[in-house]
Amino acid sequence: PSNDEVAHLMTEPRIWVLVDGISGHESQSLGVAEALGLPFETRKITYAGFAGHANTLGFAALGGLTPEAKAGLEPPWPGIVIAAGRRLAPVARAIKRKCAGGARLVQIMDPGRGFGAFDLVAVPRHDRCRARDNLIETTGAPNRVTTAKLSAGAERWRSKCAELPKPLFALLLGGSTRRSGR
User: Is-above-0.90 flag for pTM?
Assistant: First the structure.
């Protein structure tokens, strides 16, 4: 974006982060948005019908969304849309189409079809995507972990761990997924 576009983004929340209830995807998208240090708004996407098929066919579509979700996708249009996961890819592409290309699309994870519609696609290196001009490979998944959050967590646990033998090691595991059934 130009300096004028950045100045505009800093005064008005013109970054939309699309979220659809998949916590791992939301964490990645929100982590990227927070790291930008600019105001942003979330747009809750809820599905009806056969919403998942839009991306399979490569559509830019809002047809599979609930009326409430569609109502949240109206002007004024954002300058940047951030999304993660294949189900949100057609929604992001539809937003770009509705605002006549005025929104830049940032996709976290492989969008599947329609890769070229995105201005930037960030994919973990282990996914082994074919090289493209709009692709950046990451070492891992973006997240909301910051130095400040780690320091606050360490302080919160310091007294609880004070009596334990040293050195201490921590293992962080992910949460439940659709596949795990929890």
Answer: no
